[in-house]
Amino acid sequence: MKDALAALGRAAFGEGSVQRARSLDELAALPRGPVLVALRHAGSTSRLLSELIGEGSAEPAVSEQQALAAFARLGLAVRARGQAADPAPRLALAAATGKLLRALLESLQPLSSADFLLFALEPGAAPAPLQSTLLSVVVRFSGADEVALDRTLFALACQRSAPLELVVAAPSGAALLEVESALARHAPLQTFTGRALAADGAHFSAAAWAAGVTAAQGRYLAVLEAGDLVYPHHYPDLMTALAREDAGVALARGRSAQLGPAPDGTSFVSGKTDEAALDLGSLIRERKLTAAAALFDRQRLGAFALDRLDPTAKDPEGLLLLRLFALLAPAHSAAALPSFEHPARAWPAPARSAELPVLRSLGDLEQLLALAPAPPWLRYRVADAVNSAFRALSGLWRKR
Amino acid sequence: MDAQAPLWLGIVLYRTEPAALALLQRSLDAAARHPRAPALTLRQLDNSPPARNIGFGAAHNKLMAEAFEHPATRAYLCVNPDAVLHPDCLAELWAEAQLNPRAALIEALQHPDEHAKPYDPATHATPWASGCALLITRLAYEALGGFDERFFLYCEDVDLSWRARAAGLHVGVAPRALVHHYVADRTADHGSVAQMEKSAALLGEKVAASPELRAVADLRHGLKFAKARW
Questions:
Q1: b or e along B89-98 (b: 16 or more beta carbons within 10 Å of the residue's beta carbon)?
Q2: Closest CA to A23 of A14, A33, A35, A13
Q3: What is the pLDDT of residues B140-194, one digit of tens each?
Q4: For residues B96 and B172, is the Cβ–Cβ distance under 8 A?
């Protein structure tokens, strides 16, 4: 734990000595300035299981929410956070039982694997409370395709939910400069507020997710990748679904676009495939559910840790959604047509069921994700009807 | 905005929401500031009551006639009032029109749900071009005379495209010129359906009467007027 705390301190403040604390009381007594703190985590798996079998520890511990509230009261802002495991947890459980229970708890809340919560703190304001009507969309841009980023931002700037905050996370350097330029290009539409955010680290996707979600100020939250395109009603429909079902997360159907290079360097769409339904096969067996399908209501989700993806998982987003659905039933958009699209991707190999311990049965999850909104009388259906009449007419003309 | 500008841009309104028009106007301002965008003149014609609604094609024809009266005008761009132009749209449409000396009609690529009709990824040629954001060159205007005003709404763009192709002119897409326009989820009332049927019948009648149009028309795919890519 000491080594992990020292590493966190170096990453946050560089080399040099920084004061340290091991409890909130110690922290309150320290002079104002940068500080590293390690707190025993009340929500750790070890702690919870100890309580369960009647071996609760007398050593004081705090939840993450209690810690963050205390930092805010002390006028301290979190510069960096980390976690550490107890190298020798004592638990009077059979090994297999302990392992299964740990897996279950960690599938619901990844932070439960942390025996210690580590923070690098500095004087500063606590984060602002969530803005109750604001939609925040986090976009992750790895720097690979600036045209894809531009098209994603253009679609977002023209979608119909307001107010809208765009938080675009990219690696420092040229990619971040490109983000700033792309946001400025679409700013004249005056439909959003935007900011570029640096996200560095070995696992860009998870780092960008964490940085973006932490920085986002909206009660309503969505996460896209550069290249994803939302149609104008995507977020309004999802917000309606959240309100209708009093849900913490809502899902929409999407489609994948098969892209290939054209001779002039533009990308050419050769086909699009609608995802028929959000069924369990898509979620687990084929792992086709992307975060772009989801809109989260952070106020309703409460303490669920949306800001952490497991960067070592084959499908970090899918695991996060699965954990969430194990706790809360998602609402579904009532739109009859897919409302977003994403480039066709090479999806990760299906995970073995042992990697997905959840508290709901798979059958129960499947029912939760079943989707069957009745299509209304839409323009494309009108076109189909007129086509039939038109074909009959053209047949007559050919005979003339 | 300059009456001697090489590009005229026309918008035909019909009960357009002020917020939608303001958004289009902001997008136009941004697109016009692009360093490679041509100077342009903007004109609007409102078909809303109390004015008599003369139809989409006839209204654009009036604006087009005014535009091409000026010898400096090289092209007319019709833009739907519920569209939003990408900041690069004008520059890219203009550049695409310069690529082919037979260019007659160049449409912007609809975004975010691209139109499913095909186009050649090398030449950008397409069977027909949508009137949502359509650049009509002087060559096309002088050869074809604008839209057929018998089409009140719908199919006038397909008719113009087929007449252009029958005359040996180029009808193409500008893949880098994006226009935000999404109508797939709009509900259709009986009036729209009746109008669509009437326009489709007129188009079929014209094709049946003209061997030149028959040579380029595609009636096998119904109102898609081409084999869709998806």
A1: bbbbbbbbbe
A2: A35
A3: 999 999 999 999 999 999 999 999 999 999 999 999 999 999 988 777 788 888 9
A4: yes
Under DSSP, is residue A255 helix (H, G, I), strand (E, B) or coil?
strand
The partner residue sitting opposite B188, judged by closest CB among A155, A379, A393, is: A379
Give the residue from B80, B185, B187, B198 with the most A CB atoms within 10 Å of its CB, the best one to mutate.
B185
Per-residue pLDDT band for A304 (boundaries 50, 70, 90) equals: confident
Q: Report yes or no: A356 and A269 within 8 Å, Cβ to Cβ.
A: no
Concatenated DSSP letters for A360-389? S-HHHHHHHH---PPP--BHHHHHHHHHHH
Pick the closest to residue A139 from A202, A199, A186, A79 (CA basis).
A199
Decide if B121 and A191 are in contact by the 8 Å CB cutoff: no
Q: Give the range among A5-9, A107-111, A132-136, B102-106 with minimum mean pLDDT.
A: A107-111
Tokens for B138, please give them. Answer: 């002087």
Amino acid letter, residue A179: V
- Rounded to whole angstroms, the Cα distance separating A348 from A315 reads 6
Q: Are A220 and A297 in contact (CB under 8 A)?
A: yes
Per-residue DSSP letter, A67: H
Closest CA to A132 of A49, A208, A217, A48: A217
Would you tell me how many other CB atoms lie within 10 Å of the CB of residue B16? 18
Distance from CA of B43 to the nearest CA of A (A): 21
Answer yes or no: are the C-beta atoms of A254 and A340 closer than 8 Å.
yes
pLDDT of residue A149: 98
Q: Is the pLDDT of residue A179 over 80?
A: yes
Q: Are B56 and B152 within 8 A, CB to CB?
A: yes
> Least CB-CB distance to B208: which of A151, A386, A400?
A400
CA distances from A219 to A214, A299, B50 (A): 12, 6, 44
DSSP string for residues in A288-315: ---GGGEEEEHHHHTT--TT---TTSSS
Contacts of A394 in chain B (CB under 8 A): 204, 207, 219-220
Cβ of B207 within 8 Å of Cβ of A188? The answer is no
Task: Determine which of A38-52, A341-355, A365-379 has the lowest per-residue pLDDT on average.
Answer: A365-379
Distance CA A362, CA A309 (A): 22
Give bridge partners of residue B13 from the DSSP assignment: B46
- The pLDDT tens digits of the residues spanning A200-256 come to 888 899 999 999 999 999 999 999 999 999 999 999 999 999 999 999 999 998 999
Cα A177 from Cα B35, distance rounded (Å): 20
Q: Write the CA distances from B23 to A364, B18, B38, integer angstroms.
A: 45, 9, 21
Write out chain A residues lying below 8 Å of B30, CB-based: 185, 188-189
Bridge-based pairing state of the strands A35-40 and B170-180: unpaired
Angle formed by the axes of helices A204-215 and A316-327, nearest 10° = 50
Reported pTM: 0.85
